[in-house]
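Entry 12.
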Amino acid sequence: MNAAPSGHRVRTLIVEDQGMFRAFLAKWFESQPDFQLVGAAASAEEGLRLAQQLEPAFLLVDMHLPLMDGLDFVRAVRQGRPEVRSMILTSLTDPLAVTRIRESGVEGYLEKDATPAELEEGIRTVAMGRPYFSRRFREAISREGVKPAAVGKILSRREQQVLAHVLAGKTSREVAELIGLSARTVEFHRSNVMAKLGATNFPELVVQARASGMMG
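Predicted 3D structure (tokens):
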């Protein structure tokens, strides 16, 4: 699986306060021909300075940083670079974190005790522009359910539009014709919706949509 088109390396910034884990991540990125590690910061403050100077396209960020947590860091970077993609790493998954991560707009989430293969899959998936959330994260979302008031924060307007048509039984091609997008773009939005709502298939998507009040 390639993380970037031929000839293009994904400019990556790591923000991780644990020195040993930061070094492990840096060594992995430096060994990958399709990534360019532009910086590795030990704090959010240092990370913000590097992000402004180095203009990364992909952020790999620890959830629990001194003074500013990972989600606030990503939000701060996106004020100047809204197109940057991001993946959050954490050592634990608690209900509050699940809610904040789901509503934050980050493209990926993975626990630090994931296998190297899972870590590589997650990094490459998010770097390519597609969402990646760990199995435990999806299970936590499924247990929690989707609160009606949170749908507007979790899904963009376009994602809500695509979801409504999908729940009405429309195929991706039909949805594309209805809203003036390519079928590939509709599939991208559909994939994002399923990841954000913790669904892995259409029946689970229906269950989550009912729980959120989006369908009767």
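Annotation: The domain at 10-141 is CATH 3.40.50.2300 (Rossmann fold). Confidence is low (pLDDT under 50) at residues 1-6.
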